[in-house]
Specification:
By secondary structure, the chain is of the alpha/beta class. It folds into two domains: 207 residues, UDP-n-acetylglucosamine1-carboxyvinyl-transferase, Chain, CATH 3.65.10; 221 residues, UDP-n-acetylglucosamine1-carboxyvinyl-transferase, Chain (Alpha-beta prism), CATH 3.65.10.10. It has 13 helices and 23 strands. The strands form six sheets. It has a four-stranded mixed beta sheet with strand order 2-15-17-16, with helices on one face. It has a four-stranded mixed beta sheet with strand order 4-5-3-14, with helices on one face. It has a four-stranded mixed beta sheet with strand order 6-7-9-8. Bound molecules: shikimate-3-phosphate and phosphoenolpyruvate. Shikimate-3-phosphate (S3P) binds next to helix 4 and helix 6. It catalyses: 3-phosphoshikimate + phosphoenolpyruvate = 5-O-(1-carboxyvinyl)-3-phosphoshikimate + phosphate.
Length: 438
């Protein structure tokens, strides 16, 4: 086996010599960009994405749609309006091959799209993608009329035998391992002959804000969606068949990727401004305003953006993160530096994310001298004096950014494979050193 040198390279996480005071322009949201690409590809007319995120996960999404015949033109708008992508939908084609990398959004959102292609679409990805749950999507597509060939494990690799159309209709799924199963079926739902009615039957559904994001974005392109919140039955979402509009959408900054920068203000008792923080959003990262305030910071949402200030003191927290699981690594890093213990709950499903995040955080923080234990559904974190060492990242972008947060307060932290941040934030090392004024 050959080892990619980038995966073993060590990056010395900068140690903060004082309070940070910076404005950080955070690139666009992964979750919004990839939903917008899918919806634009399924529309009946061209659409625009402005300030899309360009990262591994979104480029994989764009390449996959291109492989199925969608045209995506890239350009730069006038007067600092940033990059744009113009998406020109076409009849979806097979045969095609899709590399999902380790992008949950690509591996879950695209098999339903592929049922509409006029031939087979083969899906493959990184070794970790074979282990991530996909059964909810595969089983549902079969119930809705699709032919999906897999090796019987309900996971990647697989081939969707696109038939040019899908009957659709009602389906029951257990989405307790990933909200993306629900989002995936809803996003393509308007294009199924009967639309789709998704009924979640399992235990608690994680990441509800991401399902709200799906519903909001579907409605914004003209879809009719009934939800539990709009007076429907609990755990049931219904999408009516119909054409989707091509829209002109400006992508919000990725608030989950703003997390390490806000954490830097908290950890150093400094101030970080994130321009263009939306005043209304479905992004789970918006919960950081409350969580990091409870942990000792304060924030002000202005017309310009979010101004977040640390007090120099970090408090532990007892919090249910089931709605905002992707924030867990960054919160765990801050909690390890707090003045009291923390309990992070409701995130058992993180064991099936980019890596087993509960095991990885426990091991890596403890190897720096910390005292973290795994619980059935989260972490107990008892702050202790930490020391330097290598922080392994397991090809998980949020492990890398969590390690960088620890490095601000602890001298000698070395992040293995910081390049893995390219999954959603390729500019991370530069943004980080820029924030520190290096
Ligand atoms: O739909 C989305 O864009 C996402 C949903 C969540 O997935 P899970 O529900 O699998 O945690 C989240 O963790 C992931 O980062 C992005
Ligand atoms: C869980 C995450 O990603 P994915 O979309 O691959 O599930 C994440 O970004 O934290």
């Amino acid at each position: 086996m050959t080892v990619n040198p980038a995966h073993t390279a060590l990056w010395s996480a900068p140690h903060a010599s004082g309070a940070v005071d910076a404005t950080v322009h955070v690139p666009g949201s992964k979750s919004v960009t990839n939903r917008a690409l899918v919806l634009a590809a399924l529309a009946s007319e061209p659409g625009w994405l402005r300030r899309p995120l360009r990262s591994r996960d979104t480029v994989l999404m764009a390449e996959a749609l291109r492989a199925m015949g969608v045209e995506i033109e890239e350009g730069v708008g006038p007067d600092g309006t940033g990059e744009f992508w113009r998406v020109i939908p076409a009849g979806l084609r097979g045969p095609a091959t899709v590399d999902v990398g380790n992008a949950g959004t690509v591996m879950r959102f695209l098999p339903p799209v592929a049922t509409l292609a006029d031939g087979p679409v083969r899906f493959d990805g990184d070794p970790r993608s074979y282990e991530r749950p996909l059964h909810g999507v595969i089983d549902a597509l079969r119930v809705l009329g699709a032919r999906v060939d897999d090796d019987g494990r309900g996971a990647l690799p697989l081939t969707v035998q696109g038939g040019g159309a899908l009957e659709g209709g009602p389906v029951e799924i257990d989405a307790s391992s990933s909200s993306q199963f629900v989002s995936a079926l809803l996003l393509s739902g308007p294009r199924f002959n009967q639309g789709v009615e998704v009924r979640h039957t399992g235990s608690a559904l994680p990441s509800m804000p991401h399902i709200r994001m799906t519903v909001d974005m579907l409605r914004a392109v003209g879809a009719q969606v009934d939800t539990p919140e709009s007076g429907g039955e609990p755990n049931v979402w219904r999408v009516t068949p119909g054409a989707l509009l091509g829209r002109d959408l400006t992508v919000e900054p990725d608030l989950s990727n703003a997390q390490p920068f806000l954490a830097a203000a908290l950890v150093t008792g400094g101030k970080v401004v994130i321009p263009d923080w939306p005043s209304r959003t479905t992004q789970p990262g918006d919960r950081l305003r409350e969580i990091f305030t409870d942990m000792g910071g304060s924030c002000e949402l202005t017309d310009f953006g979010l101004v977040f200030t640390g007090s120099g003191t970090i408090h532990g927290i007892d919090v249910d993160l089931s709605e905002v699981g992707e924030l867990t690594p960054g919160i765990a890093a801050v909690a390890a530096l707090a003045d009291s213990p923390s309990t992070l709950r409701g995130v058992a499903h993180l064991r099936l994310h980019e890596t087993d995040r509960l095991a990885a955080l426990t091991k890596e923080i403890n190897e720096l001298g910390g005292d973290v234990t795994e619980t059935a559904d989260g972490l107990h974190i008892r702050p202790r004096r930490l020391h330097g060492g290598v922080f392994h990242t397991y090809e998980d972008h949020r492990m890398a950014t969590a390690g960088a947060v620890l490095g601000l307060a602890v001298e000698g932290v070395q992040i293995e494979n910081v390049a893995t941040t390219a999954k959603t934030l390729p500019d991370f090392p530069d943004l980080w050193t820029g924030m520190l004024g290096a």
